Amino acid sequence: MQLIDGRAIAALMKKEIAEEVLQIRLEGGKIPHLAAVLVGHNGGSETYVANKVRTCEELGFKSSLTRYEDDVTEDELLDCVERMNRDEDIDGFIVQLPLPQHVSEQKIIEAIDYRKDVDGFHPVNVGRMSIGLPCFVSATPAGILELLKRYEIETKGKHCVVLGRSNIVGKPMAMLMMQKTYPGDCTVTVCHSRSENLKDMCSRADIIIVALGVPEFLKADMVKEGAVVIDVGTTRMPSSASKSGYKLTGDVKFDEVSPKCSYITPVPFGVGPMTILSLMRNTLLAAKKSIYS
Predict the structure, then answer these.
(1) Alpha-carbon span 216 to 111, nearest angstrom
(2) pLDDT greater than 80 at residue 286
(3) Considering the chain, what is the average pLDDT of its residues?
(4) Above pLDDT 90, what percent of the chain?
(5) 96 part of the active site
(6) Which end of the chain is least crowded, N or C, by CB within 10 Å?
(7) Which entry of 52, 116, 171, 253 is annotated as an active-site residue?
(8) For 247, phi and psi rounded to 5 degrees?
(9) Candidates 3.40.50.10540, 3.60.110.10, 3.40.50.10860, 3.40.50.300; correct CATH number of 27-121?
């Protein structure tokens, strides 16, 4: 069993991106600018946005943060999105999800200029991804592809089971794994909470990507010998052993499943570190006008 070290690959990507930004700076080019919009005081969102701002600094990016309270109106947020769409200095921006219930997340996503949609959630980017055209791929699926590529994990002709059908991970992951490219060229099965014979389908898979948000859902009896397991789950579970009072728990019962795997991602430090770096790479591509000129 080999552990897929997301921290090590993220550090490598960070070095590569920072070197490219330094070269752009030396040549007098446009420094990438990532903007973020944060609504309310959700603990997970606060942490994630703070990490993005810090990573921007480490890479030599410019970053800016616009904050609103939970009572912000949908129209106020749409006005903010429109301002960022028009701001020529901003290369890419994200509106951190989730948003308060009175705001339509889909309406906000669709208002973002797809050429600045570095989260890869806009229907134009999702549509282009589904037919294999250049686009901004959402950060978590892009990070998983990078891990598979850097570890040279064989995907061609393999049976890949994706557990979960969210718009952010499950659906894009399934589409990417069936593309005629590497990583990809898989036979893909998408399973979810309504799927029957779930155990049987998982136990025949060469690659299992778990993105359900159900702690320790995938057990040893669902995994065949030599399978590759990618765990996207990060649920905060109470823990007296840590100072914070909680520990991040994945969707895989790691101690039970890992001995059967050829490769497996841990939680934390597997897929997580790759997500922010994938967002940064999208921002760099936006600044360079590599995808949309």
Answers:
(1) 37
(2) yes
(3) 95
(4) 90
(5) yes
(6) C
(7) 52
(8) -135, 150
(9) 3.40.50.10860
The tokens describing 86, both together, are 């028009």
Annotated domain spans of the chain:
27-121, 139-272
- The larger pLDDT score, comparing residue 223 to residue 50, is at 223
What digits encode the pLDDT tens for the residues 52-108?
A: 999 999 999 999 999 999 999 999 999 999 999 999 999 999 999 999 999 999 999
Topology (CATH) of 139-272: Rossmann fold (3.40.50)
Q: Any catalytic annotation for residue 52?
A: yes
Residue 70 a catalytic site member: no
| Catalytic hit among 91, 96, 116, 206 | 96
Tell me which DSSP letter residue 258 carries. G
State the Cα–Cα distance between residues 48 and 94, nearest whole angstrom.
Answer: 12
Question: Does this chain's domain 27-121 share its CATH topology with 139-272?
Answer: yes
Whole-angstrom CA distances from 180 to 131, 168, 191, 206 are 10, 21, 22, 18
Amino acid occupying residue 50: A
Report the percentage of the chain scoring pLDDT > 70.
100
Q: Please provide the size of the chain in residues.
A: 293
Which tokens hold the place of 80? 């903010």
Quick one: which of 66, 69, 67, 79 has its CA closest to 102? 69
Select which of 91, 117, 119, 206 is catalytic. 119
Residue type, 4: I
226: left (phi over 0), alpha (psi -120 to 50) or beta: left
Q: What is the pLDDT of residues 109-135, one digit of tens each?
A: 999 999 999 999 999 999 999 999 999
